[in-house]
Structure to design on (439 residues):
């Protein structure tokens, strides 16, 4: 009888599953080949009666020598099998031949490189000589590595780090209902009159009423004072915020009113559509030629420029007759002259269309204009290579040191290396042409 476990098949079936880092020997070793040949003797009629098994038998010696040859060939087979797969290949020529089937050319081996930002202390330039060594920490399961500086480098404590000002949009919209003001400059409250001017564009001067004034936090996390107006403001295209000037009056007065009904004269005279002559109810020497004033007639508000100032005598009370009793008890009529007082007279230039002298009793004059706040826009929350870059003050210029490479880093720790130049006077950072990054 025979047992299936005694049956030996050579060569055995190859089994090479995917993902192996090493391929096990697929055929056999010396003991396996020796045992297999001894087992197969019964199948050879000429050797059926041979029963020698001793180590000193010449036949056994010849059989074992053949087993050694098979063992050696099996070893070669294992080594060659490793070179047939990318994961197990041990020789670079084998890898080249395998990847060449895909048209891939391996990159030559290069040394690892790293970019470091070095911070210095003190007030003098520090020179790092070539081959200065820096030891890294361990990473990705690899031990720490030593990097050497490939060229001499200078660093200066004054250029260690500085903050870049956030760039802001360069122009305001052409029609806006509200404006943002810098918090430390805003001097407005709801109900205030506001004179809005655009530098170099007198035709764009407008008068508005602040209907709501409140502090807001912008998307850039900055605090601003938002002023909302009773009507939309119109600006020329591409108007920079720095060219917009806001003013608000601090004083008010009325026009002179002739005393008594039917008295001659008026506190306002319309000379033509662009010239107005007004007389104030008192003396206001603080109003000077060139000043701007705002005249209101009910809900209508217009601005004017003072062309000329003067003083004249105006009547406070009208003259008349008074009946008195003299020392003899006789009634006597006494003529009283009109009472006069000095008053400021202004010649104003502006839009007088539709106004009449009869409006004088309703006119309120607002003067003593002061700055109401600096107009601004929210800073950008994303920086582009094309944006103007300026460092925040203060900056101290180092002696004999001109930085040319910079590392920019945002609050999220995202950084980019750039090259350029820094003007220490204007604090402007100018990048080299072609600089770009994303984001």
């Amino acid at each position: 009888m025979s047992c299936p476990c005694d049956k030996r098949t050579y060569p055995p079936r190859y089994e090479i599953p995917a993902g192996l880092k090493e391929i096990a020997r697929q055929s056999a070793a010396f003991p396996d080949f020796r045992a297999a040949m001894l087992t197969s003797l019964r199948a050879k009629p000429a050797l059926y009666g041979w029963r020698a098994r001793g180590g000193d038998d010449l036949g056994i010696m010849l059989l074992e020598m053949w087993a050694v040859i098979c063992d050696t060939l099996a070893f070669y087979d294992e080594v060659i099998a490793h070179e047939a797969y990318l994961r197990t290949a041990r020789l670079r020529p084998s890898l080249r031949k395998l990847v060449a089937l895909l048209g891939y050319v391996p990159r030559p081996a290069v040394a690892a490189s790293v970019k470091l930002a070095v911070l210095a202390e003190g007030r003098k330039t520090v020179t790092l000589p070539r081959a200065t060594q820096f030891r890294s920490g361990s990473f990705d399961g690899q031990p720490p590595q030593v990097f050497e500086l490939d060229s001499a480098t200078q660093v200066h404590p004054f250029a260690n780090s500085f903050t870049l000002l956030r760039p802001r949009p360069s122009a305001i919209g052409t029609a806006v209902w509200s404006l943002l003001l810098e918090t430390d400059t805003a001097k407005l409250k709801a109900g205030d009159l506001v004179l809005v001017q655009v530098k170099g564009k007198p035709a764009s001067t407008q008068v508005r009423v602040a209907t709501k004034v409140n502090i807001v936090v912008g998307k850039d996390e900055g605090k601003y004072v938002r002023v909302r107006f009773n009507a939309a403001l119109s600006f020329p295209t591409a108007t920079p915020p720095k060219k917009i000037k806001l003013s608000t009056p601090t004083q008010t007065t009325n026009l002179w009113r002739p005393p008594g009904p039917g008295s001659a004269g008026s506190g306002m005279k319309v000379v033509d559509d662009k010239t107005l002559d007004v007389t104030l109810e008192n003396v206001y020497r603080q109003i000077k030629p060139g000043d701007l004033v705002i005249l209101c007639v009910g809900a209508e508000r217009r601005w004017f420029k003072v062309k000329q100032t003067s003083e004249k005598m105006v009547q406070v009370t009208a003259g008349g007759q008074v009946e008195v009793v003299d020392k003899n008890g006789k009634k006597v009529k006494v003529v009283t002259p009109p009472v006069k007082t000095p008053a400021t007279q202004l010649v104003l230039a502006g839009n007088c269309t539709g106004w009449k002298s009869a409006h004088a009793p309703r006119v309120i004059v607002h003067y003593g204009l002061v700055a109401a706040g600096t107009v601004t826009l929210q800073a950008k929350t994303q920086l582009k290579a094309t944006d103007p870059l300026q460092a925040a003050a203060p900056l101290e210029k180092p002696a004999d040191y001109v930085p040319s490479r910079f590392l920019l880093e945002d609050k999220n720790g995202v950084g980019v290396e750039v090259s350029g130049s820094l003007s220490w006077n204007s604090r402007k950072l100018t990048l080299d042409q072609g600089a770009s990054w994303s984001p």
